[in-house]
Amino acid sequence: MPTIAHSAALDAARREFAGRDYLAACTVGLPSRATRRAVIADLDAAGAGRPDLAAYCAAVERSRGLFASLVAVGADRVAIGSQTSVAAGMVASALPHGAEVLVPDGEFSSMVLPFVHSGRDLVVRTAPLHDLAAHVRPSTALVAFSVVQSATGEVADAAAIVAAAAAHDALTLCDATQAVGWLPVEASAFDAVVCHAYKWLCAPRGVSFLTVSDRLAARMTPVNAGWYAGEDPWASCYGGEVDLAPDARRFDVSPAWQAFVGAAPALALFAALDPGELHAHATGLAAAFRAGLGIAEPERASAIVAWDDPEGCDLGRLMSAGITASGRSGRARVAFHVFNDEDDVDLALAALGH
What we know:
Elements: H1 8-14, H2 33-47, H3 53-70, E1 78-81, H4 84-92, E2 100-104, H5 113-116, E3 123-127, E4 140-146, H6 158-167, E5 171-175, E6 192-196, E7 208-212, H7 214-219, H8 257-271, H9 275-293, E8 304-308, H10 313-320, E9 326-328, E10 331-335, H11 342-351
Parallel strand pairs: 2-3, 2-4, 4-5, 5-6
Antiparallel strand pairs: 1-7, 6-7, 8-10, 9-10
Helix pairs in contact: 2-8, 3-8, 9-11
InterPro entries: Aminotrans_V_dom, PyrdxlP-dep_Trfase, PyrdxlP-dep_Trfase_major, PyrdxlP-dep_Trfase_small
Organism: Microbacterium yannicii
Domain Aminotransferase class V: 60-293
């Protein structure tokens, strides 16, 4: 496949990653050199008896601000945590008992189970992703969906879903875990966005974010409030007489400090790049792979390619060739990210006999 021209910034970002033959960003991202240095330096300092709590909190707040810039909202709209399901559970707390939640068929369980097991007798209804908007009805209180489906890589028609939800005064919850880092996402379009950063944002596992609209924040209960949800966390360590933060920080979950140490440089790398160029790079490689494999292009371009592989034969061929890929729901699955290039496409196609 011909080499695609890139900006100097994207080329520099690609050099931040040492891994090769890796097509599994949709499973877990690779650490950048800067992330590796930051985590090792922190471990060395802690191992020498010098853990730096102020630096930990600075890394958390830097990460919050960087994620906010990536999804085009203010940092006051962003809560931090460690798992998307915890954030989805807080969204469930905003719904009245017996309310209806609409989710796509085959949606990732972290976006479904918090509503199924909310203890609020919520009615969870499913519909095909490709026409999810058509299934929003007056009784729908919330539409919860991943903007990019984990198992298939299908990109949702988010604009149509948001418009249909608005027509019926329904809230929207968007899981952007499989999107932010290659697909531009504007969090202000949704009432809530959840995103774990260990995939396409290449952060250590244990760093997630939640953005909230004003109308959702007014209804949502900080059911996981702890010391870090206080207006001044270091003055909120004891007792119940604590002033919670007035903005989205009231929904914070106590941070996994070391994970945020590694997340801050990873998020800085992506925040410094042109999101349009990232999208074109990832989807261009995916399109070349689809063409070589004879797979039709999806309606909306995706960096993830998944195809039927019920016996795991194609996945086995890729792995035998030294290519790290993944399989989900009877499909083989590859993903193309900033650290991939045309050679990865050619190697994967050769491994599959194309």
